[in-house]
Amino acid sequence: MGGSVRRVLLFSLAAVTAVLTSTGAAPAVPAAARVAAASATLAGYPVWAHFSNPTAGRDYTIINELQRLIDGAPAGSTVRAAIHSISVDSVADALLRAQNRGVTVLALLDGKNATSTDPAVTTIKQLANHQFCLNSGGGHGCVSTSPDGDMHTKLVTFTSTTDPNGVARGDVVWFGSSNLTYATGPDAFNNAITVYGDAALAAGLNANFTDMWNRRHYSGNDYYDSASGRGYYQAAAADAYASPEGAGQTDTIVTRLNDLTPDAECRLRVGMASVTTGRPQIVNLVTRFRSAGCKVWMVIGSNADGGIAMSQSVYNQLLDAGVAIRRKDKVHDKFFAAYGKYGTAYQYRVYTGSQNWTQDALGENDEIFVKMAPETGSTRPLYDAYYTHFNDAYNSGVTCSKSNFPCS
To answer: Got the DSSP string for 258-322?
Structure first.
């Protein structure tokens, strides 16, 4: 994206945000404000966000950017890809091209792909270094030992590639909500972030990849352990937290969001594919935020029957708390965009990754949840982009009430 395009995008986003600040409601967003990509600098590191929005048809924005990153990896570099599912040929082809030009490519896939005859999976099998995760309990996780576990992480790291402006960069990480299939990739609302040059973040996520590659298991399926630093990767541009976590312990989302002090100025927007009863600590956190005056909006995807992908008891509790909820088909995002008081200062923060608001995401699956570094002041391009992406789905969604469950 050229500089003039970025300036136009950011101007549109700033205008939208100004409307929200003055009204306290989610405004109708003009078509020109629809966001595809945005760039920011967090803690001194370049960060790009890319979004898919299927309202006008299949949107390859995220897929094209990932393919560009892979094609930019030079001979002698290394690409590590954790793939939950794949059917998009162009990404598989890019990985094979990378190997053929001298890039070391390691591809790690959820075990359900092992028997697939999809052409993209067939291409992945041509890579010298590929694995399909199947644990002894019959699950599809790599670290997880649960029979119900999946390798649900969507992560690609690069020792070297180029940024969207063509500048060579090292220590590059790409992560987000998008799978490499059509239904839960370009045919759905998704987000992805690429961080350039943060060596500590790259080292942490590479360590997580290596643990999955080596099938490192822990008693009680307890991979995340903050006391030992396992599954916990702190860096300047972002901190990352990896599941699964042992039963009855902390909630990795709650313990990231609970350093926000809610008040009447607080704003929280949630874009989520599915919500179940298995994360009561998140429900309690959000209701506590509302009781303190924080405004909360949620846009949630649909289930196979066309109703909202949210358990009714959670649905009722959140509505009773005053949370504004809408259902929108094809939402596959997993993010929180927050504005509020952290310590003594107001900040804008984005939280993203692969975790749904479900028990499986916390205690059964291999996942990552990522807390991006804060933005402050009048310039917050990352937050503004997520704000607009949220409204791209929310503003045309079905308004939910207790009387219309499942919000259809």
So the answer is: TTEE--TT-EEEEEES-B-TT-HHHHHHHHHHHHTT-EEEEEE-B-TTSSBSB-HHHHHHHHHTT
Are 371 and 349 in contact by the 8 Å Cβ rule? The answer is: yes
Beta strands in 101-189 (DSSP E): 104-110, 129-133, 155-162, 168-176
CA-wise closest residue to 147 among 126, 161, 133: 133
CA neighbor of 194 nearest in space, from 331, 39, 338? 39
CATH 3.30.870.10 positions along the chain are 36-243, 254-404
* Residue-by-residue DSSP string for 25-36: S-PPPPGGG--S
Least confident of 29-33, 242-246, 332-336: 29-33
CATH of domain 254-404: 3.30.870.10
Q: Mean pLDDT across the stretch 315-331? A: 98
**Per-residue pLDDT reduced to its tens digit, 30-84:** 444 589 999 999 999 999 999 999 999 999 999 999 999 999 999 999 999 999 9
Give SS3 for 385.
helix
> Can you give the three-state secondary structure of 68-109, one letter per residue?
HHHHCCCCCCEEEEEECCECCHHHHHHHHHHHHCCCEEEEEE
pLDDT per residue as tens digits for the range 180-222:
999 999 999 999 999 999 999 999 999 999 999 999 999 999 9
Amino acid letter, residue 123: T
In the numeric block, which tokens belong to residue 395? 């503003």
The radius of gyration of the chain's CA atoms, rounded to the nearest angstrom, is: 20
What's the CATH code, domain 36-243? 3.30.870.10
Q: Give pTM, 2 decimals.
A: 0.92
